[in-house]
Amino acid sequence: MDPAAEWLRLRERLGRRATVSDRYELEAQARGCEVEDLSAEDRERLAREVLALQSPGMELLPAAARPSSPVVVAPYDVAWPRLFAEWRERIAGAVPSAVRIDHVGSTSVPGLAAKPTVDIQVSVADVEHERSYLPAFEGAGLLLRLREPGHRYLRPPAGRSRAVHIHVCDAGGAWEREHLLFRDYLRAHPEAAAAYGRLKRDLAYRWTDDRLAYTDAKTGFILDALEEAERWAAATGWTVTS
Predict the structure, then answer these.
(1) Is 191 in the same domain as 224?
(2) Is the pLDDT of residue 205 over 80?
(3) Domain identity same for 118 and 205
(4) 86 or 158: which carries more pLDDT confidence?
(5) What pTM does this model have?
């Protein structure tokens, strides 16, 4: 069995639901070992292989790389919305090209357990026009870590707290809509949020030393929730501006 070819066939069938952890499983089967026996170097190589296929055109910037730390899923903290509010004011003053600034991700859903890092989504008119926003973020001590079509990801450099992550996207684009819809659906459906929290704790236990596998393994749940969320949006008249 060629595990790389098997994963490609899996992706043809499942689309976005084929994950990094699936690639690990196929590699381990081909070697006759357990996933846990794959070295960190092997997993990093396999993860980069999958990322290149999942997101053509994606560029990881090594200048912003930092040592990996264990995945920790913490109970909900009422300080998270306050931290977002502080950064929203800071970003609004520094980035005049921002069309909207939103708190997204698990820390934006009251009561939901999350990694203790506040995700902030900044919508701009044209994410490709980096000169209109990137210098301001760099001045705030945030470095560009990932560049991909429709999205830029920034975070603090090594040696600083992971307090916030910044996601810059196109206003009115698919990235913006999907993240806001997922957030609002979980806010309106506590049972779905609770299930998501349980899944994240389980995945954090399994993939505590592999942030990419942890993140990617949530894909199936997120896609299922988004299908439900689209039906909910149609029934309630939800829009990005609502």
Answers:
(1) yes
(2) yes
(3) yes
(4) 86
(5) 0.92
Residues spanned by the domain of 46: 3-54
* 72 located within any domain: no
**Contact (Cβ atoms closer than 8 angstroms) between residue 159 and residue 167:** no
Residue 203's closest CA among 105, 114, 107, 104? 114
Residue in this structure with the two tokens 């053509």, named with its chain if needed? 56
pLDDT tens-place string over residues 151-167:
999 998 877 778 999 99
Q: Are residues 29 and 140 in the same domain?
A: no
Decide if 67 is inside a domain. Answer: no
Q: What is the total count of domains within the chain?
A: 2
